[in-house]
Design a protein that fits this description.
This protein is mostly helical. It is 76% helix and 0% strand. 24% of the residues are buried.
Length: 160
């Protein structure tokens, strides 16, 4: 079971590194575009690249953020519950998140295949949409594995 947890954490870290790279490229592209715009030579397609990169930066960072419990969490009510109802509530919420992200991931993968077969591209640079959609779908499915890992950690008393 430890190898499963390590694999999920490793995959989440790899996607977070890709998200960090996308965010860094977004920052450099924006700075270069602003400087060149002042000089009268803006970078063509910056809007498209920022949109695609922003989707990657946000979507690929979700699994690791969930792994490290980096989301905002208000536990004033849950902390007052006895242990058993608290565990049941934690497992129930993880199962709901798992179902939501499975549906989202599955539909994003199907949509990526549709985009690929239709040949959909961005208007200016003609960048295909399907790789970004595919990456987001895979990230959602990895988020499902993070929720399974959370449930495993809850049962092993390693979560709290």
């Amino acid at each position: 079971m430890k190898s499963f947890l390590a694999a999920v954490k490793g995959a989440s870290s790899a996607l977070a590194a890709a998200a960090a790279a996308a965010l860094t490229l977004l920052m450099l592209l924006t700075i270069a575009d602003v400087v060149l715009r002042i000089l009268g030579r803006p970078i063509v397609g910056t809007y498209e690249l920022v949109a695609l990169g922003g989707a990657l930066a946000i979507g690929l960072s979700l699994p690791l953020t969930s792994w490290v419990r980096g989301h905002i969490y208000v536990d004033s009510f849950v902390a007052r519950l006895p242990r058993l109802p608290r565990v049941v509530l934690c497992i129930a919420t993880r199962l709901l998140v798992l179902a939501l992200f499975f549906i989202l991931g599955w539909n994003l993968l199907k949509y990526a295949l549709d985009l690929r077969s239709a040949g959909e591209v961005t208007p200016t640079l003609r960048v295909p949409f399907f790789p970004v959609t595919l990456a987001l779908g895979l990230s959602c499915l990895l988020q499902c594995l993070v929720m399974v890992a959370d449930i495993v950690k809850i049962f092993r008393n390693e979560y709290e």
